[in-house]
Amino acid sequence: MRAVIYARFSTDKQREESIEAQERACREYAAAHGYSISAVYADRAASGKTDRRPDFQRMMRDAKSQRFDVVLVHKYNRFARRMSDHVRYEDKLNSYGIQLIAVAEDFGTGKEAVIMKALMRSLSEYYIIDLSDEVKKGHRENAMKALHNGGLAPFGYDIVDQKYVVNEFEAAYVRRMYNCASDCIGFTALVDEMAAAGVRGKRGKPIKYQQIYDILRNEKYCGDCILQKTVTVDCISKTRKANQGEAPMYIVENNHPAIISREVFNRAQEELSRRNSLRLQSDKTAITANGRYSKYALTEVLHCAECGSRYKRVTWSIHGKKKIVWRCVSRLDYGKKYCKKSITVEEATLHGAIVRALNRFHVEDESTYLTLMKATIGEAIGINGGSEEIDLLTRRIDALNKRMLDLVNETVAAGKDVESSEDEFKGISDQIEQLDRRIVAIQESIHKDGSRQARLEEIQSIIAKRSANETQYDDSIVRQMIECIKVHSDGRLTIIFGGGYEIKEVL
Fold first, then answer.
1. For residues 382 and 272, is the Cβ–Cβ distance under 8 A?
2. Other beta carbons within 10 Å of 491
3. CATH number of the domain enclosing 32
4. Between residues 293 and 213, which one has the greater pLDDT?
5. Which one of 75, 105, 135 terminates a domain?
6. N or C: which terminus of the chain carries fewer CB neighbours within 10 A?
7. Total domains present in the chain
8. Of 218, 235, 261, which marks where a domain is finished?
9. Average pLDDT over the chain, rounded to whole?
10. Closest by alpha carbon to 77, among 39, 117, 40?
């Protein structure tokens, strides 16, 4: 009878038989049972978690042509780790009239053999799941010890002896990225400068806008580490997704040397949230729609009250003289078809109206504005919730504790052991633990570094630095304080400050 051998040595770090040892065991079995070996298929450094193995697929193609009668493997886990893959491919072999035999797990052909084969397949898959859990534990322990868990180091760091070490050349650019975000400045000039200087990311490619935004969102730059930001959907295929509450996240503060302070990091999150909220409202012709950030603050905030489109800065030439004006994008691109009543505004006139609005701030205005800003800033830097959220979380914990007590009573009343509901008890306990961690995080954020208060004080300082009758327009003030300006067809402006505070002004 014609037989072939399939052998595999995986990339996993567990102890495994070598290709040669597997082949030798299969040849000994073949000799003892009168099989003639016609071919050997071997995948080296190939995981059984996937069927994307060159020699495995070559063997299955040859099987379809019925070039052999038996496939010999050392153990069933050499054929496939995933139970579904094992069943699918063994069924294919059977449809070709080919038998699969594991020489070290040969259970014969009786009823018991069917059960034993299924058990071995299950154990193979269980092994991977168990290994995945152990790897997760190892990653957590590494993080607690401030050790790198593998992969490329973030831009701005090098990995030395599994520890994060600041790369000062790269870190200088990281700080400039955060400064641009904190000062409400776009990244165009910095991107061009890095490209001209030959600065490359860890994968050797030029740093573009998306990489900058990724860097600005990464808590590692302020010295912290968040574990389980993603979760494994399938540990066999290694498919992962963003963690949306499926598993607890672990925050390790001061895990490694920081490149920027937490205050700077929080300020950057606030600014990114502001930019993102503007980008979501942008139309296809807006500058921010492609991810770039205009150097003109008004490009981000100036809207037509008639059609909702953005206003765009345009240079007009009249009788050889140039004039800067702002026009509704829809009116500019499509004429009166989509926007009939929008007006054209001279830049100098617009700037003057904005300055007058800022000068109208009185003590009570500033107080109202700052009160409204508290919620906005808290949400942007992740300090939302406060006492109200703590009350809500506490009520949810009370409800879960009551559910656990009810479950105990139900179990006892049914004459069952408490162990019979162990999984449900654990599920409730895990939920309570997660809610407790959230409460602690809120309490720490309220009392710890005062980042929200510091940001409010900064904005208050910006207001205080302006003289009572300022005449000079300042783009940075607009970026820091104004969320939206609506231009009405009758020449009115509705200026909306952070937190929703509104001032009306006339052009």
1. no
2. 13
3. 3.40.50.1390
4. 213
5. 135
6. N
7. 3
8. 261
9. 75
10. 117
